[in-house]
Amino acid sequence: MLTNIVLPSLPYLIPFLLFVYLGTTYWRLGHVPGPKLAAFSDLWRVRIVWRGRAEMTYLELHKQYGDVVRVGPNCVSVCRPNVIQSIYGIGNGFIKASRDPDFNIV
């Protein structure tokens, strides 16, 4: 019974899921410059970290794209020291990663 419903709807379901994925990742930060591959997957970041010296890659990206660079589907690198308080300050509306060192309380 379920296969009679799911299988015929697959041609419509796959483009819909792709549209939802692109809407939640690529288009939301589409205005932020950066490598095109980084806009679609975090595998790009995994690769540069795995190769080592990711910090040098980030510096090169900032030289090429400017102060704000998209380095993942939902990740932006900022190299303006004067905005650190705006981003990491309390009650500013920015969501920080739970693995952020500032949240590790010993």
Summarize the structure.
This protein is mostly helical and 106 residues long. Helices cover 46% and strands 8% of the residues.
Helix-strand blueprint:
Elements: H1 2-24, H2 43-51, H3 54-65, E1 68-72, E2 75-78, H4 84-88
Antiparallel strand pairs: 1-2
Considering the chains and any ligands shown, give keywords for the structure.
elongated; mainly alpha; 4 helices; disordered C terminus; 8% strand; 106 residues; single chain; two-stranded antiparallel ribbon; 46% helix
Average pLDDT for all residues: 76
User: What's the total count of β strands?
Assistant: 2
Work out the helicity level: 40-55%
In percent terms, what proportion of residues is strand? Answer: 5-15%
Low-pLDDT runs: 102-106
Q: Could you give a short account of the major beta sheet?
A: 2 strands, antiparallel
| Strand arrangement in the largest pleated sheet | 1-2
Shape: elongated
